[in-house]
Design goal:
Elements lengths: L1 H17 L5 H7 L5 E5 L3 E12 L5 E14 L2 E12 L4 E7 L8 E3 L2 E7 L5 E7 L7 E3 L5 E3 L2
Antiparallel strand pairs: 1-2, 2-3, 3-4, 4-5, 6-7, 7-8, 9-10
Keywords: Signal
Length: 151
């Protein structure tokens, strides 16, 4: 009897935490580049950071970019989700890239280039860059060895 209850509880909590609705529109209107908003509940924590905008060659905003890390307590373990989100100039979410770990999220966005900090095979920190054009790539690479597809 405990197993079905635990499974149901985990699924319900996951849906509540990971399926939560965030008002990104307000964030995109009010946030300054690099500004983070953290929301905590009894069983979850969400940190959303506004990275900035992608502009076309004429300087018009094409995309708003946000990174998000969500952590939820499920029984004895914590589960997380790390995502890079892209919104159009009407502030509608149009793409997301889920990475494995929060350390793989971009550190900054400058002149249409996402900057990531990765570790090489020897454990040394290296900076990796991914340029974003007015057409979103099918994959975003957080290092020279690891890429994540658009969903």
């Amino acid at each position: 009897m405990k197993k079905p209850f635990l499974l149901f509880s985990f699924l319900f909590i996951s849906l509540v935490a990971f399926g939560q609705r965030t008002d990104y529109g307000k964030l995109l209107e009010q946030a300054k580049t690099g500004e983070s908003i953290t929301t905590k509940t009894k069983d979850s924590e969400s940190t959303i950071t506004y990275l900035g905008t992608i502009k076309n060659e004429k300087g018009k905003v094409v995309f708003f970019v946000v990174k998000e890390f969500i952590r939820i307590q499920a029984a004895k373990q914590k589960h997380g989700r790390s995502t890079i989100l892209f919104f159009d100039n009407q502030k509608n979410k149009i793409a997301e890239y889920r990475v494995n770990l929060p350390d793989e999220l971009p550190k900054k966005l400058i002149k249409n280039i996402l900057y990531f900090t990765a570790k090489d095979s020897k454990g040394n920190r290296i900076e990796h860059q991914q340029e974003i054009s007015i057409t979103l790539p099918e994959y975003i690479c957080v290092s020279s060895e690891e890429c994540f597809n658009k969903s």
